[in-house]
Design a protein that fits this description.
The complex is a heterodimer of chains A (582) and B (1171).
Chain A lengths: L1 E5 L2 H6 L1 H13 L6 E5 L11 E4 L4 E4 L4 H13 L11 H6 L18 H6 L4 H9 L2 H11 L11 H10 L6 E6 L8 H8 L1 H15 L3 E7 L3 H16 L16 E7 L8 H8 L23 E5 H13 L1 H6 L8 E8 L5 E6 L4 H8 L9 E6 L5 E4 L9 H7 L7 E6 L4 H15 L5 H18 L7 H15 L3 H5 L2 H9 L1 H10 L13 E3 L9 H5 L5 E2 L7 E2 L9 H5 L5 E3 L1
Parallel strand pairs in A: 1-2, 5-6, 5-8, 6-7, 9-13
Antiparallel strand pairs in A: 1-3, 3-4, 9-10, 11-12, 11-13, 14-17, 15-16
Helix pairs in contact in A: 6-10, 6-13, 7-8, 7-10, 9-10, 9-11, 10-13, 17-18, 18-19, 19-21, 21-22
Chain B lengths: L2 E6 L2 E6 L4 H7 L23 E4 L5 E3 L10 E3 L3 H16 L8 H5 L6 H9 L3 H8 L6 H7 L3 H5 L2 H4 L5 H13 L16 E5 L3 H12 L3 E5 L8 H4 L8 H13 L3 E3 L10 H7 L2 E4 L5 E2 L13 E2 H9 L9 E5 L3 H12 L4 E5 L11 H9 L3 E3 L2 E8 L5 E14 L5 E13 L2 E4 L3 E2 L30 E3 L11 H19 L38 H4 L12 H9 L13 H8 L16 E2 L5 E4 L8 H9 L5 E4 L6 E4 L15 H5 L5 E3 L12 E6 L8 E7 L2 E7 L12 H12 L7 E4 L2 E4 L2 H19 L4 E5 L5 H14 L5 E3 L7 H5 L16 E5 L3 H4 L1 H12 L3 E6 L11 E4 L5 H13 L6 E2 L1 H7 L7 H12 L3 E6 L5 H13 L9 E5 L5 H6 L6 H9 L5 E5 L13 E6 L4 H4 L3 E4 L8 E4 L5 E4 L11 H12 L8 H11 ...
Parallel strand pairs in B: 1-5, 6-7, 6-9, 7-8, 9-20, 11-18, 12-13, 12-18, 13-14, 31-32, 31-39, 33-34, 33-37, 34-35, 36-44, 37-38, 39-40, 40-41
Antiparallel strand pairs in B: 1-2, 3-4, 3-5, 10-19, 15-16, 16-17, 21-22, 22-25, 23-24, 26-27, 27-28, 29-30, 29-41, 42-43
Helix pairs in contact in B: 4-5, 4-9, 4-19, 5-9, 6-9, 9-19, 10-17, 14-15, 24-36, 25-36, 25-37, 29-31, 29-32
Classes of the chains: A alpha/beta (582), B alpha/beta (1171).
Chain lengths: 582, 1171
């Protein structure tokens, strides 16, 4: 029997290490027969820890494994009864059938720490074929046919960048992978790094060969320790098999070296030029474009930068042909896209879907709908640089152009689902707070402009908003988009602009009526005890952290509004619906 | 680079590709603003000011980084572009803390640079203070006496203790000027031929006339009264403003060429129509001369006199009968003047009747106080309701109604409400002083506003009549204080000038960043010090006469008081780009008000301070330190809005690698990095600039001296030639200023009874000359020696030498850095063979025993640049640490010549010198025993293999033998006589090379010997060295110096020396460039160096010969062929002059300057290399 534990960061966080340790102990002490392996995240993070048990013929998948359930599995395995009954429903499988996995093809399938696993599934065939049979130009042509666009956020045609770097004169060029995934709630790249690092290496090698770079650097954020370890291992393995290094595959003069650079987790370092500055050891601040990295990049050498997901697509495209990729998706957005479904969605996790699937299908189909079956309100696409899309636009197909039209962006694939209890002003404030803090501080519009926008939003959510704040927010938004230097600043106002576009009334309510319908803006809500319903059970007064609730036992209690910090604990705890939120 | 064509703002431009839009725009005088771009630095793009629009590009593009492309159509000033820039500025300003201008200046209606003149007064620069005042205020002595000084009201010192007594300081400065034989007369521009009539000779009219005259217009003032001064003359009593003070100031206006036409009333003597026909423009400033009257029964009594009419009649000596009990109605300054004048006229009881309280009185406090002191009875909260006349028609009683205070009104002032309680006050006469009105007779064509005053456009001062402007009390809301009328006159003058050019000037209110809500807690470092006392006439004495009450400050009072200034206004506002753009773009940043960083001044450096509150994060300081200086002292800390510029770990700057070059301060576009002026008081000033040369070392750096009066404000780097970096080291940039402004000798001293006493120039020179003469008589020739430092200019040094030779009959002219042996023995000249600029393009630089970065940082930076451009640096030093970090190879040798001899030996046997040489074989033979070490061989081989090599050493650190050996190595390796090949000798002082050229090269050691053995009995030292001591054998020691030195203290005569900043002449740099230094400030010594020396020489000689710099330089040229025609070149403005004048800057291209034109190789045996 083969035991495979899902050991991505999400799995480990859910307890996969414990599962692994217990199994390991059993096997080591010969109490259990079988081998123990790990695999990456399969995407269904909400079901972790996941354990797959393989017999010669069968595979059985256990989700949300606990110590108790594991003990049961082990005893069944020992008794040989594990495969006796068919599992009634495999929720992982039902998730996977709705997807189309190219980037994540190996994630949760292979052991990410085994190059052999990768090779067994056709790994490194594409690069070898490229090196032996194809010219850089041919490769770029193939990518052009595939229609692959940058998955980091901007959706810029990949072949164009490669071609620019190839055309750029110079003997020394660099191939850089941007693994500085920074959007809050997005973890597609981490998953690939943790679950299938070799596909990234292969993608980088192909790209490196195509542009004429003999050196590659992966810029990973230090907050991804597991990804770094797995990537390091993968690089070591590839080197030891002469896949990386000098005279690759025995081909004279074909070299490619790969190194890892860890970044200190600054959001702005996802911006190409800031990333380069950081690579060079400088403060991570964007530089002016032009010159573009393809002309003058890392230490002024021509440099091509692609993100992890983009590169993970590349071996597949070279294996299956650009056309196969182009056949997926829509006219202008080809292939698939991985999304990190988070927020108030039932099946949170990673999903890879063909471009063009409607938002509705993603959220309600693949995602399984809203937690607690509450009302869907909006979905935020593209993280802090993106925007929110309201219910009326749920039919929008997920592809670059259509999403852009809504004011949001596909971005790197963060998809935060919000229900009726979300205040959209607060949501905009949250994202702006993020960009404001992550601004590098270089250009005026971003440094001070976003700060001023944040102050206005704070004012509004605090109940201090003024009618002129809305036009001022709009003016600042447009000016910042127009005047900021890099993508961070230019897109920072998007959450505000889209919420203003689709939920303007919420702003107006906050300002004019001093009301927050979602009930999340503390200064705009208050809690009151309904004397006729309160039986004086004292639960609320006990839970109140500021002792704002007083009252005799068995008599109606009262909340001191000055002392109340509106934490809402009393409201949650009251069993008699005696506390009213208004 | 291809030639392409672009269109910017409609202008077709041919340009080369590869340039940015900004560069092309600048080259074509198209103004694109930027706050973060500098040609010295890489493109950065943070500020967002340089955005422009390009056709077919939907985005705003940054001009600083976008390269032009063929066919590009660019617009630099579209509404969209301007709006973006404006918002950028507003955002920056919303996060900017400080005061662009001091609150005192902003408080003044005429925006007189109060902080400027108060600061100048603190620095004892009274003349400059007056000049500054007169830029905005023509009548400072008068205004300083009578102004209710809104400047003082604004003064922030008031939150600490008392406001600075600004008006009295102004009065002091102005009085000092008037007390002079000739008072300051402001300059006037050349005549424009335009004629302007000013109607009304009061403060407003005089002001307009003054400013219009300064612009070169022909101005006449028509005055209805017999004398000028308006209300200052006829409304203000003499005890406040003596007649002669006002008259003197009016005389200055007259002396500038303003025609004053008295006794001419418009409407009676002349018509406005006529004036309009005769003149190109008219300014009406006729004041408000009619008193207002209360609207109550009896107030129309003809015997009730208006306040202003009362003062007026008194001023023109019309008899006024007032009686013993006088009631003055009103609480303003005029009312107080009427009260106090009544007292002086002998009234027994004077009542000041005011319907509000004392706190509400519009009169200035001091007036009220003084009136009280003089015995005026105040009746507050008393409202006249009826004036009751007696049988003779005269008022005998006033019915007063008691009032009480009510709720505050909209302006915050508490209303008064009647109580019904009444009082009947018996009086002999009543003066009604509740306000003044315009008397518009004669100006019927001019439209009035609903208040009955002349209606003007408040920004342009224009009236309904074309070419007729008006201002002052006659307009708008009516009568107010003199300085308001003066401000109107000044601003209207601008408008009229514009009108004469065919437009209308619209003055925009100045935008300034202000610090609000300051409290005492903001000034923890300020010790309380109340205002300086001011002498007053005692009330008992003064109430009987019209003598001026206030005495005025003494000098000590004035400077002490001025020193109380808190220096609120930004020191950099005169050159702040943010300030300039903010006003250009008419910003209104209030809507973005939010969190603003605190202004935290960090005083961690002796020469400048950092104020992050004013930082706009343009990063230029960070970048210039890193990119230009390669130091990286400053960096960015934190992210987003919290980002600040800081030294690493927020260390004090002085504890970092900072070399105090000041580049960051120079480049900062705002006041975030400010220079600490080395003056008593920091003052934001716009100084005059003088181009000169630094004398701190032999580099000969060009400096731009910014001065005000006798204050040196700054020394700034300047590029005299294209190949120079505009950079100075700490010495040239800051120390020079510090030295200049320190307290220095200004009078000669002679030792009398063992003590140095101040004497006259006559006495000092006579004593020196006579004593030297007697020494010569007693001990013969050469018994008196002179010595001078390398800071003396060529002309001075030449004259000193002449004086020594001819007057003192001595050959002994020593230099503090004299070298009798050196390169001269081999090549003919003791001089660098090439220019320093060639170092930029050579392939290898070899330095010997010197830490260039420390000795001459500017050269060090230059070398670093050369290295970063690919040059190699070989360093041979006794200490491994020195210069090793940026050298390509470093050799550490002990203090002997074995390594260099080894190099020479290898060269001698492996290379033939191409230039003519004598003594090669002897030299080779002498090296027989020398060992060629591996190091020596490596060095020698590198010299032979490298095409261009230059040798650099500090002459004062090496032995004569070492210098000669290096010269021979250069010769043997054939790195001589070619561009980018040769020797640069560093010199200690600005003109050490010039002195050597003049033959002043005797070694000081030799002098010591001659003093010791009694040969030299008298010594005259010009600029002593710190270590020198007086020897007992000396019978005469004369020292000329700037500050009394230890040697000076032992001297018989000390002569004060002017500084570099005060001297004009030429210096020869260490690479033979002859450059002109210019005096920026008049010497405080009364005599220049040349005058002093001539003074002494004249005592010797019968002929009084006058030498000037030009003839002296010509004489030098006649004696030294290398300097021939140097004077002509300098006169024609040549900035790139070197000797031999008119020849190649590279010495020994074909032969040498020795007697036989061949190099004379010297035999050098092993000995010490370093001194």
């Amino acid at each position: 029997m083969r035991f495979v534990v899902g050991s991505g960061s999400c799995g480990i966080a859910a307890g996969a290490d414990r599962v692994h340790a217990l199994l390991d102990q059993e096997i080591k002490h010969n109490k259990l027969e079988g081998t123990l392996e790990i695999t990456g995240c399969i995407g269904t993070c909400y079901l972790e820890p996941i354990l797959e048990v393989y017999s010669d013929k069968n595979m059985k998948r256990f989700t949300k494994v606990t110590e108790e359930s594991l003990k049961e599995i082990i005893s069944e395995a020992k008794e040989g009864t594990l495969f006796n009954e068919e599992s009634s429903e495999d929720s992982v499988e039902s998730q996977l059938v709705q997807q189309n996995r190219i980037v994540l093809r190996n994630c949760g399938v292979i052991n990410p720490e085994s190059i052999d696993d990768y090779i067994k599934l056709g790994g490194y065939e594409a690069i070898e074929k490229c090196l032996r049979e194809r010219s850089p130009k041919q490769i770029i042509e193939e990518i052009k046919v595939s229609g692959l666009r940058g998955r980091g956020g901007a959706g810029f045609p990949t072949w164009f960048k490669w071609n620019a770097a190839l055309q750029s004169p110079g003997d020394i060029k660099y191939m850089v992978c941007n693994a500085d995934e920074g959007d809050p709630g997005a973890f597609m790249d981490r998953s690939v790094l943790e679950g299938d690092p070799h596909s990234l290496i292969e993608g980088m090698m192909i790209a490196g060969y195509a542009i004429g770079a003999k050196k590659g650097i992966v810029y990973v954020r230090a907050e991804y320790p597991l990804a770094i370890v797995r990537l390091e291992k993968a690089i070591e393995q590839a080197k030891s098999q002469n896949i990386l290094g000098k005279d690759i595959f025995g081909l004279k003069g074909i070299d490619f070296d790969l190194s890892i650079k860890t970044g200190a987790g600054a959001f702005v370092c996802g911006e190409e030029t800031a990333l380069i500055a950081s690579l060079e050891g400088e403060r991570g601040m964007p530089r002016l474009k032009p010159p573009f990295p393809a002309q003058k990049g890392y230490f002024d050498y021509p440099t091509n930068i692609n993100n992890v997901e983009t590169l993970a697509n590349v071996p597949w495209i070279l294996n299956k042909g650009g056309q196969a990729f182009a056949d997926l998706g829509t006219e202008r957005s080809n292939g698939t896209k991985v999304f990190a479904l988070t927020g108030k969605v039932k099946n949170g996790g990673l999903v890879e879907i063909p471009m063009g699937m409607s938002l509705e299908n993603v959220i309600f189909g693949v995602g399984g709908g809203i937690v607690g079956d509450k009302e869907f309100k909006a979905v935020q696409l593209g993280g802090p640089s993106g925007g929110c899309i309201p219910k009326e636009l749920l039919h929008t197909p997920v592809e670059y152009e259509s999403i852009n039209q809504t004011g949001a962006i596909v971005g790197s694939g963060g998809m935060v689902v919000m229900d009726e209890n979300t205040c959209m002003v607060e949501m905009a404030r949250f994202f702006l707070d993020f960009t404001c803090k992550e601004s590098c501080g270089k250009c005026t519009y971003c440094r001070i402009g976003t700060r001023r926008m944040l102050e206005i939003l704070e004012r509004i959510t605090d109940g201090q908003g003024k009618p002129e704040d809305i036009p001022l927010l709009e003016e600042l938004s447009y000016k910042i988009k127009e005047g900021a230097m890099c993508g961070l600043g230019q897109t920072a106002p998007n959450p505000v602009l889209t919420t203003l576009k689709y939920f303007r009334h919420e702003y107006e309510e906050h300002i004019n009526d001093k009301k927050c319908q979602a009930g999340t803006c503390h200064n705009l809500i208050s809690y009151h005890i309904l004397a006729d319903k309160c039986i004086g059970c004292t639960v609320c007064s006990k839970v109140c952290p500021t002792n704002a609730i007083t009252g005799e036992r068995k008599a109606a209690h009262v909340i001191d509004q000055d002392a109340c910090i509106k934490c809402g604990q009393c409201f949650e705890k009251c069993n008699f619906n005696a506390i009213e939120k208004s | 680079m291809a030639k392409i064509r672009v269109n910017i703002d409609g202008k077709e431009i041919n340009a080369y590709s590869g340039h940015t839009i900004l560069e092309i725009a600048q080259q074509n005088n198209i103004d694109i603003p930027t706050l973060c771009h500098n040609e010295k630095l890489k493109n950065y793009g943070s500020c967002g000011m340089c955005v422009v629009e390009a056709e077919n590009n939907p985005k705003l593009i940054r001009a600083c980084s976008t390269q032009i492309q063929d066919g590009m159509v660019i617009k630099t000033a579209t509404p969209r572009v301007k709006a973006s820039r404006k918002t950028t500025l507003e955002l920056m300003l919303s996060d900017h803390a400080g005061d662009c201008k001091a609150p005192c200046m902003l408080g003044c209606p005429s925006n007189v640079d109060v902080q400027g003149y108060v600061g100048l007064t603190a620095n004892k620069e009274y003349d400059e203070a007056l000049r500054l005042i007169k830029e905005d205020l023509p009548l400072p002595a008068s205004v300083g006496r009578v102004c209710p000084h809104p400047c003082q009201t604004g003064c922030r010192r008031g939150v600490v203790d008392d406001a600075v007594s600004i008006a009295w300081i102004k009065r002091y400065v102005a009085d000092m000027d008037l007390a002079k034989e000739t008072s300051y007369k402001p300059s006037t521009k050349p005549n424009t031929g335009k004629r302007i009539a000013v109607i009304g000779g009061g403060p407003g009219g005089l002001s307009a006339a003054y400013f219009l005259r300064r612009e070169g217009h022909d101005v006449a003032i028509y005055e209805a009264m017999p004398e000028f001064g308006g209300m200052l003359k006829y409304g203000i009593p003499l005890y406040r403003l003596p007649k002669d003070v006002l008259q003197s100031e009016i005389d200055v206006v007259r002396s500038m060429g303003v025609k004053l036409i008295p006794n001419t009333r418009v409407g009676t003597d002349i018509t406005l129509d006529h004036i309009r026909k005769e003149f190109d423009a008219v300014y009406v400033s006729i004041g408000a001369w009619k008193s207002s009257y209360l609207n109550c029964p009896g107030s129309d009594n003809e015997r009730i006199i208006g306040g202003i009419e009362f003062l007026n009649r008194f001023a023109i000596n019309e008899p006024i009968r007032t009686g013993n009990r006088i009631a003055v109605i009103g609480g303003g300054n005029t009312a107080m003047d009427a009260c106090r004048t009544s007292i002086r006229l002998g009234a027994k009881e004077v009542y000041a009747i005011y319907r509000r309280t004392k706190d509400d009185m519009p009169a200035v406090d001091v007036e009220i106080e003084e009136a009280e002191e003089e015995g005026v009875t105040f009746k507050f909260l008393s409202n006249p309701t009826e004036f009751i006349a007696g049988a003779d028609g005269n008022v005998t009683h006033i019915r007063l109604e008691k009032m009480k205070q009510g709720e505050p009104d909209a302006s915050g002032r508490r209303k008064v409400i009647p109580t019904g309680e009444e009082e009947l006050l018996p009086v002999d006469s009543v003066i009604m002083s509740i306000g003044q009105r315009l008397a518009p007779n004669g100006f019927e064509d001019i439209a009035l506003n609903d208040r009955g005053n002349i209606d003007i456009n408040p920004i342009t001062f224009s009236t309904n009549l074309d070419g007729v402007f008006a201002g002052g009390d006659a307009t708008q809301t009516g009568a107010t204080i003199a300085i308001e009328a003066i401000a109107d006159g000044k601003n209207a003058a601008k408008s009229i000038c514009q009108y004469l050019k065919g437009g209308l000037y619209a003055a925009q209110p100045l935008y300034t960043v202000k610090r609000e809500g300051m409290t005492k807690e903001h000034f923890p470092h300020v010790t309380e010090l109340s205002t300086s006392p001011m002498g007053h006439e005692a009330p008992e004495l003064r109430k009987h006469n019209f003598q001026e009450v206030v005495h005025g400050f003494t000098e000590d009072n004035a400077t002490q008081e001025a020193n109380r200034c808190l220096e609120c206004g930004c020191m950099d506002s005169h050159e702040c780009n943010l300030f300039q753009f903010s006003n250009e773009y008419e910003v209104k940043p209030e809507r973005f008000a939010g969190l603003n960083k605190e202004s935290l001044e960090k005083h961690t450096h002796p020469h400048f301070y950092r104020d992050n509150g004013k930082c706009i994060l343009c990063g230029m300081c960070v970048r210039v330190c890193d990119e230009v200086m390669d130091h990286g002292v400053l960096g960015f800390v934190n992210r987003g809005f919290e980002t600040v510029v800081q030294p690493a770990l927020d260390k004090p700057l002085k504890e970092t690698d900072c070399i105090s070059c000041g580049q960051c301060v120079n480049i900062c576009p705002t006041g975030a990095l400010q220079e600490r002026h080395h003056t008593d008081k920091q003052v934001p000033l716009h100084g005059e600039c003088t181009e000169s040369i630094c004398d701190e070392c032999g580099m000969g750096c060009n400096i731009n001296l910014e001065s005000k009066g006798s204050l040196l404000l700054r020394s700034l780097p300047t590029k005299s030639r294209t190949d120079e970096v505009d950079l100075l080291c700490e010495k040239g940039r800051f120390e020079l200023v510090k030295q200049q402004n320190q307290s220095r000798l200004s009078k000669p001293l002679i030792r009398k009874n063992g003590v140095l006493e101040e004497v006259s120039w006559q006495e000092a020179t006579l004593y020196t000359a006579r004593t030297a003469q007697s020494l010569h008589l007693r001990y013969g020739d050469n018994s008196v020696a002179t010595m001078l430092s390398g800071k003396y200019f060529n002309e001075t040094a030449y004259l000193i030498k002449k004086m020594a030779n001819n007057s003192f009959n001595t050959e002994y002219v020593y230099s503090t850095k004299g070298y009798e042996r050196g390169l001269k023995d081999i090549f003919g000249y003791d001089a660098s063979t090439n220019l320093m600029s060639e170092l930029d393009h050579t392939d290898l630089v070899v330095t010997f025993g010197t830490n260039i970065m420390e000795r001459q940082p500017v050269l060090g930076v230059r070398l670093r640049k050369a290295i970063s451009n690919g040059a190699k640096l070989t360093v041979i030093n006794p200490d491994t640490n020195v210069g090793g970090d940026w050298a390509t190879s470093a050799y550490h040798n002990s203090n002997d010549l074995s390594l260099l001899l080894g190099v020479a030996k290898h060269l001698a046997s492996n290379s033939e010198p191409t230039l003519p040489v004598d003594g090669l074989d002897t030299f080779k033979d002498s090296l027989e025993a020398v060992e060629i070490t591996d190091q020596a061989e490596t060095i020698a081989k590198e010299l032979l293999e490298t095409r261009n090599v230059m040798f650099v050493f500090d002459r004062s650190l090496l032995s004569d033998d070492a210098v000669m050996l290096i010269g021979q190595i250069a010769l043997l390796s054939n790195h001589l006589g070619r561009p980018r090949n040769g020797i640069i000798q560093l010199r200690d002082e600005g003109n050490t090379q010039g002195l050597i050229d003049l033959g002043i090269n005797h070694n000081v050691l030799d002098l010591e010997e001659k003093v010791n053995n009694g040969e030299v009995k008298g010594l005259i030292v010009f600029g002593p060295e710190a270590t020198m001591k007086r020897h007992d054998n000396l019978e005469l020691l004369v020292v000329q110096e700037e500050v009394l030195s230890p040697l000076g203290m032992t001297a018989d005569v000390v002569i004060p020396s002017p500084t570099l900043i005060e001297t004009t002449g030429t210096m020869t740099s260490q690479d033979r460039r002859i450059q002109q230094a210019r005096a920026a400030i008049t010497p405080n010594t009364d005599m220049t160096n040349l005058e002093q020396i001539q003074h002494i020489m004249n005592i010797f000689g019968n002929r009084k010969q006058q030498y000037d710099i030009q003839t002296l330089l010509e004489s030098i040229g006649k004696e030294l062929p290398e300097y021939l025609h140097a004077n002509d070149h300098l006169k024609s403005g040549s900035k790139e002059l070197h000797w031999p004048v008119g020849q190649s800057p590279i010495l020994y291209e074909n032969d040498f300057a020795t007697a036989n034109s061949r190099a004379q190789l010297q035999v050098i045996s092993n000995g010490p290399m370093y001194l």
